[in-house]
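Sharing a chain and its predicted structure for anyone who wants a worked example. Both blocks are below, sequence first, tokens second.
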Amino acid sequence: MQPFELTRAQDLQQALQAAARASQAGQGASVRFLAGGTTLLDLMKLEVETPQAVVDISRLPLDALRDTAAGGLEIGATVRNADLAQHERVRRDYPVLSQALLSGASGQLRNMATTGGNLLQRTRCVYFRDTAMPCNKREPGSGCGAIDGYHRNLAVLGTSAHCVASHPSDMAVALAALDAQVLLQSASGRRQLPVQDFYLLPGDTPHKENAMRAGELITGVVLPPPVPGARSAYVKLRDRASFEFALASAAVVAAVERGVIGHLRIVLGGVGTRPWRAHQAEAALQGRRPTRALYGQAAQAALEQARPLPGNAFKIELARRCVAHALQSVVPAD
């Protein structure tokens, strides 16, 4: 592990000022906030992450869940994944989020991992995590070893000639299906972004994974009020039953109005370079009466843009079945 400067922030302003000072000193791209540390510390030990400055935010009052005035829910950035998954309001009004969290990692990790850290976790591509191998995400311009190498668990949607790494978060997939907003704050002010806009496609800059600016901190996530009559589910397919990342997953939130599908969100995980909103699948279903045949057509549409490599082509059919099963779980059809 490389040496770094550690600041233990006692309040939000101290944390933001420490990050701003590091940015002004030319360390802006090398400042990391530390909460649970379940991803960051691993990557620092591997020397994949080599920040010059680390700001410990674990003592900040960002660990609360609050009802919003609009009827939604605000989740603090340091709320533990275990607490969020079991929260009464989440289980009742946003079950897809609870299911996604409980399908990820182990109980021990969920007890430490935080909401903000989960959003910022990085790919499990073996080339990214091995500093002896080429990786444009880790070292821009070095190449993508996965394209002609091992890529079985990597993305088939949103890829580029420079990167095919898959996005790892289950939670982010569920949040995208819930139209959640990410709250960001820096020394210069606050802003918020939809989860779908928070993540960037790799293009020719795969090292730029999200839309955060230098010195910004995730302070929380806001969920809108639950859609009246909506049901939701998260389906995850993986090599083993626990402590494993998705080969394909699907988060579905849907409401049926007078026998036809009204509100609908379908977001895929495990197959995209970011949580993948399946707009074509949604368009195939909205305003129509649900049937198994229609679910099959929607699943086909969800993967129309897929560009697989030889080792992960199986993911297309796997993801189609995942989408169809998730839809059937939420709105049973004949």
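Comments welcome. The longest helix spans residues 314-330.
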